[in-house]
Amino acid sequence: MAATLADVAARAGVSTATVSRVLNGNYPVSAVTRERVHRALGELDYVVNGPARALAAATTEVIGVIVNDVSDPFFSIQASGTQWEAASADLLAVICNTAGSPSDELKYISMLLRQRVRGVVLTGGSREEPEHLRAITKLIGQALSAGTKVVMCGRPAPPDVDVPCVAFDNEGGARALTRHVLTMGHKRIAYVAGPAGNSTTTARLAGHGKALEEGEVETSVVVHGDFSRASGFDAAMELADSGVTAIIAGNDLMALGVIAALRQRGIRVPQDISVAGFDDLPAAVDVVPALTTVRLPLDQGARRAGRIASGVEVVTGPTKLWMPAELMVRESVAPPRRQTQ
Amino acid sequence: MAATLADVAARAGVSTATVSRVLNGNYPVSAVTRERVHRALGELDYVVNGPARALAAATTEVIGVIVNDVSDPFFSIQASGTQWEAASADLLAVICNTAGSPSDELKYISMLLRQRVRGVVLTGGSREEPEHLRAITKLIGQALSAGTKVVMCGRPAPPDVDVPCVAFDNEGGARALTRHVLTMGHKRIAYVAGPAGNSTTTARLAGHGKALEEGEVETSVVVHGDFSRASGFDAAMELADSGVTAIIAGNDLMALGVIAALRQRGIRVPQDISVAGFDDLPAAVDVVPALTTVRLPLDQGARRAGRIASGVEVVTGPTKLWMPAELMVRESVAPPRRQTQ
DNA sequence: ACGCTGATAGTAAGCGCTTTCTACGACAGG
DNA sequence: CCTGTCGTAGAAAGCGCTTACTATCAGCGT
């Protein structure tokens, strides 16, 4: 149906090699010939056959991005940044939603490898069980030995795997945030963490823990959600009467849920209970009270990852690219009322 | 580097044809042979070469999705739905951000066509200028004649183009919303529309206009934003002192901006000015006051589009699939104060 | 004049897979 | 026993491109 190089060549009265050359501009072709080829190209509405080119040239113009869920702003911001960088390298980006499922993650990586993508960006990350880690390590090994770039974005590389790694300072951010809450005078604090085992959860929890150790704390409780708004809501319903004066959520989505739950219970934020989040999603400024949270340069990090996966930027060795976290002090955290003491 | 079919065949002591057959399971192979091939496959860590297969089979396992910006929830929700459906058809989804630029849109469609994707979902949509329309019509024609499915999602097909079209009832939703505002007693109303020329803007504006005609209105003013929060903010700054009692925004993002601006000006929502949005983004319930808006079944529509583009669902003729809008009455619209009369 | 060089263009050998067509036993029917 | 069938497997011809390698033809130095 579609015109092929041979059709164009015939029409222009040249060989396919010549057409290929004017298409790729990697070999001198005389001006008149080039002109003739261009005309034929236009007249036939020629469209390069990507798979054929990929087969012959042994390289594609595609990279892959693996996220938990593009409809979650945390990931969509990253996906967008990566896609953007891919586009400026003239590459397409295929985006895969794992919904946090390790098996889906493996399935998608295999599919991408099968497509011989130029590079893969792995974001998010699921429970890091040994078995999964082993499987993913093997896939990464295959990818690497096939020349496919692999970049971790916001998650650690599996042990003994040498891939560049865009690391957001979750621990530092969480520590600064909890320290801020402590500084405000809170002594009874609840932390609504993300799913256990998740590397992001772990890092944030660690930062939180360090800050707690450094401060004076009466009560500290940790419960686990799953990073969804609903899980934050549920957690807050439990926590509402526990006597804590501050609830720190593992991400903004859960913080939003926490605020909604507290409001529903008639508890004022921050007068009765302070709430903090993490990520600084766009919505953080629209909530009332505006959310005190931690900003991660997700877009920047993802772009960096995208540039590496696209081959625009070359890094060597087991490079860890640290992206700093920034505390965003707004209104949802205030000093506790001196209560019942 | 990577093992090929021939390597596997050699190792299993069979022909490549046989290996191909056990891989695809589309031809009888005896149990013992199959077993031997499977072993060889495993031992060599064989990974199918997608481009080669695509070339030989003249079909890929990929669809494309074109959006304005995946980091905008309006689009990320759609992208996610489409991707999900693609995945359940074992296809990958490449996602392209046009940032609303017609030329980028054309560029991406060409790139997708070059990749010989199975189908393309076009969402969003930019200014629909004749020239662009013509170009896009041509590309769609090429796609169609190459057997690539094309589906419009939330935007009209160009004139004389026969493609299935998932249509959200923007006009009906806008009409219901404005009617609701009028019912509450507002007579001086401002509408912050999306970018002029955009088909979604036009439809919503039309619905708004019809409702206005049906009601009693003293003042009505329309200004244009660009669907971004910032543009809503700016518009509201202008409108704050205009004496309107209600501001209807063309989407939730702008409504959020409007609310923020009004708050900054010390104007209470909804006591002083009511605000309404459109889309029912997740954040709509977290704002204070909760946003009265219109819900569009974006996810459902996008999934439908994804299924069509994947070839799972077959529609024939110039089918228009209407997706209903639903008015979400919350707290940001209230009766106007009887003022200064 | 003659071989050389440099600039262009053509030839053809793949890239790794799918698939049609053919080949080969084994087995049953006449 | 011969032939027609059925069930498997192999041979080989592409799919549409890229890219050595080769060929051609000016122009040039000697």
From TrEMBL, chains A, B:
Residues 3-57 form the HTH lacI-type domain. It comes from the Bacteria. Keywords: DNA-binding, Transcription, Transcription regulation. InterPro entries: Cro/C1-type_HTH (IPR001387), HTH_LacI (IPR000843), Lambda_DNA-bd_dom_sf (IPR010982), Peripla_BP/Lac1_sug-bd_dom (IPR001761), Peripla_BP_I (IPR028082). Residues 4-47 form the HTH cro/C1-type domain. Pfam families: LacI, Peripla_BP_1. This is Mgl repressor and galactose ultrainduction factor.
